[in-house]
Amino acid sequence: MFERVKEDIQAVKERDPAAVTTWSVLLNYPGVHAMWWHRQHNWLWRHGRRGFARWISQVARFFTGIEIHPGATIGRRFFIDHGMGVVIGETTIIGDDVTLYQGVTLGGTGKERGKRHPTLEDCVVVGVGAAVLGDIVIGRGSRVGGGAVVVNDVPPNCTVVGIPGRVVVREGRKIDAIDLHHEDLPDPVVEMFRCMQRRIDRLEARLAGDEAVSAERGEPPFPLRQVPSAEAAGAADEPVAGAGDGESCTY
Ligand SMILES: CC(C)(COP(=O)(O)OP(=O)(O)OC[C@H]1O[C@@H](n2cnc3c(N)ncnc32)[C@H](O)[C@@H]1OP(=O)(O)O)[C@@H](O)C(=O)NCCC(=O)NCCS
What is the residue-wise DSSP string for 62-85? Predict the structure, then answer.
């Protein structure tokens, strides 16, 4: 147990330049206190004392401003800097060496049951006020920018910012602001134009055929052809070639 405590204190000293002495960490870091509380109520939770575990977690919240559900699974050297307003949901899984800043929510989207909170792999950093929502995975070594709202998986070693969160840095390289790979995106407007083009091509081919027949007969080309009389129309009551093979463009 003392090994884990020493490890917790060392993790704070490594990640926060303001943490100079061990005493300072012991007294002034609610993130560390919250972690120690969590180990107690998580033990109770795993041993069937769930109601009591929840109550202890609320006591811890009262003292630290950090709400960690007793069911959350948290790895080693976890550090919450400043702490106030952090919420960690029941089915959250946090790897080793993860850092959170104040105001971070690791929550559900409110729609699911079962595993509904995120998984943060090792060495993830989540910036101030960010929300990571749903059963998604933030890949190893990724960073979530302050204020981001992340609702989709993030690959390892990425930086994700904004609402909704989008990857701006991957494996140390900036992602272009303008993604030129338009061919990878479904574009309903382009698809509709293609559909219309195919129909126009068919109509033109049919019209050309009609005009050729008219020319053979010495009739004027469409649309100057005479409107047939009522009797003639009745007599020529035959299906128009190609009718009904039209393509439907529904968007
Ligand atoms: C995201 C973060 C980790 C920086 O990552 P990085 O890999 O160094 O990325 P960069 O600084 O090169 O920024 C990449 C792009 O994202 C933008 N960006 C960075 N942080 C952002 C944020 N929080 N929200 C929106 N956009 C952000 C930058 O402006 C830049 O955009 P550009 O390419 O158009 O110029 C950092 O900005 C951050 O938010 N850290 C949180 C720290 C924190 O919470 N501190 C609290 C201390 S109390």
Answer: HHHSEEE-TT-EE-TT-EESS-TT
- Closest listed residue to residue 10, CA positions, set 97, 124, 140: 97
* Helix, strand, coil percentages in the chain from 3-state DSSP, rounded to 5: 35, 15, 45
Residue 126 CB less than 6 A away from ligand 1: no
- List the CATH number of the domain containing 145: 2.160.10.10
Is the distance from the beta carbon of residue 168 to the nearest atom of ligand 1 less than 6 Å? yes
Task: Count structural domains, the chain.
Answer: 2
- Is the model's pLDDT at 65 over the cut of 90? yes
Q: Residue 142 C-alpha to ligand 1 middle, in angstroms?
A: 12
Give me the percent of the chain exceeding a pLDDT of 70.
83
Mean pLDDT, the chain, rounded, equals 86
Q: Is residue 154 domain-shared with residue 199, that is, in the same domain?
A: no
Calculate how far, in angstroms, residue 100's C-alpha sits from the geometric centre of ligand 1.
15
Q: Could you report the per-residue pLDDT of 194-204, keeping only the tens digit for each?
A: 889 999 999 99
Do 190 and 170 lie in a common domain?
A: no
Check whether residue 32 and residue 156 sit in a common domain: yes
Query: 145: Cβ below 6 Å to ligand 1?
Result: yes
For residue 135, give the amino acid letter. D
Can you give the residue range of the structural domain that contains 62? 2-174
Average pLDDT over residues 205-222: 81
Instruction: Tell me if 128 CB under 6 Å of ligand 1.
Output: yes
pLDDT value at position 1?
75
Question: Taking the alpha carbons of 78, 81, 82, 85 in that order, is the dihedral positive or negative?
Answer: negative
